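Hi all, posting the design record for the shared folder.

TITLE: backbone redesign
STEP: 1 of 1
STRUCTURE INPUT:
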């Protein structure tokens, strides 16, 4: 499954794995939300509310598409967050891993807190 994430200054596509959370997210598309930033991570609220999956991770690779179940939010890290150790991408708490951003995840650096953000099928 591919999704497109767009904001005023750009867009990325992402390829999602077949997981219960990715299916819940795709079922809620299209989504329009307000972007928030936390270090080098973009996150935003969604109407999906899945459970934490057994393989949830807190430290992920840049460009991972993750779902923060504690906040019903999509989390898109592209570099260190305020709680990272070194250059790692450390999320606020364990998140469900849905897939990866296609191409360079640093494109997310152009997202500003407060930007409208839209997620739809690619």
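Okay, here is what came back for every position:
SEQUENCE:
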């Amino acid at each position: 499954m591919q999704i497109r994430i767009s904001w005023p200054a750009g867009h990325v596509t992402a390829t999602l794995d077949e997981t219960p959370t990715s299916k819940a997210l795709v079922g809620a598309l299209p989504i329009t939300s307000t972007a928030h930033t936390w270090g080098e991570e973009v996150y935003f609220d969604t109407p999906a509310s899945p459970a934490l999956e057994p393989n949830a991770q807190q430290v992920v690779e840049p460009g991972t598409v993750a779902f923060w179940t504690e906040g019903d939010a999509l989390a898109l890290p592209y570099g260190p967050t305020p709680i990272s150790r070194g250059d790692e991408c450390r999320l606020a708490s364990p998140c469900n891993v849905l897939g990866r951003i296609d191409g360079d995840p640093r494109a997310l650096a152009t997202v500003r807190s407060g930007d409208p953000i839209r997620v739809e099928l690619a």
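COMMENT: The longest helix spans residues 20-28.
Let me know if anyone wants the other runs.
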